[in-house]
Structure formats: structure tokens, C-alpha cells
Amino acid sequence: MNKITILALFLYVFAGVEAQEFSDLSQKIPFDEKITRGVLPNGLSYYIRSNDKPENSASFYLIQNVGAILEDDDQNGLAHFLEHMAFNGTETYPGNSMTEMLERNGIKFGRDVNAYTSKNETVYNLSRVPVNRDGMLDSSLIVLKDWCNGLTLTK
């Protein structure tokens, strides 16, 4: 190594050590005051933040603190399978009618309607929902409700 490389490496390591000295990990991260939060009577926590861009649209995320880590060995893949079944029919939207309704309103499956399962969470989302269209806010909330407690588990 030449002297410049050694000096650069020294400065990089030294800067990292200096930065660590000033980090106080015991301090709480401040909560964004623009977020409204609460808990429904059934225990569901919610967070709402207004955003003007893009105009007249909203995104909804349903984050469940469950995932593959809770599966026993004989249940491997069950959480991911259940996530996929959420798109195959609910009490309010049987079969593919949920996806069809959303796509009729410009909300594309895969791009705007999606979900994933990881080790410790399952997340469903509806993005770019045109809330200025009659009934779309209510329909989106019904989809979220059905994803929580209304899967038919049929195709």
C-alpha cells in the first residue's frame, strides 16, 4: 500500500471511531408530530400521515407482526401461502373480484396492490388509491379489514 492509501484508511477508521463516541443510543428517536396515531377498541394500532403528493391518492399498509419465524417445522411456508391466499377471495370480495374492482379504479395488481412475508412480519399494501373517487376510501378500508379477518381461503 502506498502512503496515501494508508492515510485514507487511517482517516476512515478514525472518523468512524470519532462518530461512535458521539452516538448516544439510549436516546429515543423523536416521533414525527405530523403523524396521528391511535389504537382501535380491538387493539389494532393505526398511524395516519397526510401527504399532498401525489394529489388525491392514498397508500394503505397493513403490517402484521407475524411471519415465518412463528411456524413450526411442519408449517414451513404457511405464512407465505396465507399471504397469497389473501388475493384469492375474501368475505366481501369473493374470487378475483377484489383485484378486478381495484384495477377498474386504476390500482394495478403487483404495482399498487401487493404483499410480502418475511421472518417476523407480513405486510399488505394498497398504493395510489384514488381517494377522490366515490367509495374508494371505504373500499380500501374494507379490503384491509378482510385481509385481517375475512379470508375465504378458496379459489
Mean pLDDT: 87
| Quaternary | single chain
Number of domains: 1
Shape: globular
Helix/strand order, N-terminal first: HEEEHHEEH
Rg value? 22 Å
First-last Cα distance? 64 Å
Number of strands: 5
> How much strand?
15-25%
> How are the strands of the biggest sheet laid out side by side?
3-5-4
Helix amount: 25-40%
The CATH topology assignment is Cytochrome Bc1 Complex, Chain A, domain 1
Which CATH architecture is right? 2-Layer Sandwich
With helices defined by DSSP (H or I, 4 residues minimum), what is the helix count? 4
Q: How would you characterize the largest beta sheet?
A: 3 strands, antiparallel
CATH domain class: Alpha Beta
Instruction: Assign the structural class, choosing from mainly alpha, mainly beta, alpha/beta, alpha+beta, or little secondary structure.
Output: alpha+beta
| Uncertain parts | none
Task: Provide the CATH superfamily.
Answer: Metalloenzyme, LuxS/M16 peptidase-like
Account of the protein in words:
It is built from four helices and five strands; from the N terminus they run H-E-E-E-H-H-E-E-H. The chain has helices at about 5-20, 80-85, 95-105, 135-150; strands at about 35-40, 45-50, 55-65, 115, 120-130. The protein has a three-stranded antiparallel β-sheet with strand order 3-5-4, covered by helices on one side. It has a two-stranded antiparallel sheet with strand order 1-2. Strand 4 (about 115) and strand 5 form a beta hairpin. It is of the alpha+beta class. It has one domain: Cytochrome Bc1 Complex, Chain A, domain 1 (2-Layer Sandwich). The chain is globular, with a radius of gyration of 22 Å.
